[in-house]
Amino acid sequence: MTAIAHMRKYLLALLLLGGLAAAQTSAPAVSAKARALHNSAIVVDTHADTPQRFLDDGFDMGTVTPLSEGHMDLEKVRAGNLGAEFFAIWVEPSWKGQYAEHAMQLIDSVYQQAAKHPGQMVMAFSSSDILAARSGKHPRLATLMGIEGGHAIENNLGLLRDFYRLGVRYMTLTWSNTNEWGDSSGDITDPQVEHHNGLTPFGKEVVQEMNRLGMMVDVSHVSDKTFYDTLVISRAPVIASHSSARALNDHLRNMTDDMLRAVARNDGVVMVNFFSAFVDQKFLDAYKAQKIERDATVAAFKEKYQKEHNVAFTPYSAEAALEKEWAAKIPRPPFSSLINHIDHIAKVAGLDHVGLGSDFDGVTSLPEGLDSAADLPKITQALLDRGYTPAQIRKILGGNLLRVFRQVERVSHQMQTVEMKP
Predict the structure, then answer these.
(1) What range does the domain containing 73 cover?
(2) pTM
(3) Is-contact 380 30, C-beta < 8 A?
């Protein structure tokens, strides 16, 4: 073999190795088999922050948006065969006195989107509504809502019932802020925040009333003690609408293996969050390292914007764009990071206790190859590649959440039936 031939062979080997490295870090190509399997499933995602875009930016789901602007529109929904979406009703904790009002505005914005696109979206309020939305020749996106942060009910069970009547079907007991009746993981290490050692007596009443109503109890964002208090109190299975595994990524928003097993004993489900900082330790470490400078830049931007425009808050898109600029300074983790979390939870909690809770439109970075709802079939391909069967994959894609939703409805019926007896 000549020197030139040796060089060609060496260069070819380098190219092949580069291709293999790229294949290992990027999302897998979706085969016809995986596509058919994905399209046969009812795909349920339990958390998207798109209502902030509806309300603050006038965003319309019928508008095809570039990836730089959002993770979700109706074209992306169709491409990803997303069957049901729980849109998050989130209110900034600093807006005390306006929680319920702003939540109502967000709820209205979701209804408005469904009304604008009746051929593609339909409001859904039960597990059977999700099935109905996906049946027939022209399936529609089952459109549901979940409150993110119990401060929205303003310590009022009457408001909780009102939100249920308006269609809210889960509530995250806390957001990143500890409220008057439950501790959050977001500030649990802050000595300046007054904590309750889990749930207060009123917090336990909230969980019980959610059980009675048929509203799923969401333990994402809560402190570990609040989590365990909730599982003792709740008569229905709980969900973690957008949390990942702490064993793989040491963030308090994620769940320990003991917590995963506790959810399994409760017959609940953990819906995996797609945010790079929750699924990849290297990304999280880099994200933490830039925190002080990032937060200061964002705070200064918000203050300047609000003064210049004479408004009380910065629109979602403006702040999100700046946050994305900072996140873009950190390399996106490999697609496999997300699949590792799904795989880990399936192994620790069991195949019946894991699902998808993307946090679309609420996060600033996603793993390589996962850019929007259109890329959901890549998860199906990756699970097939790891040896999961079609039946198991359908459970992960949505079947597990539907099972929990039905059980929550059964518990509600049982509790209300007992109440009605003389």
Answers:
(1) 32-276+334-420
(2) 0.92
(3) yes
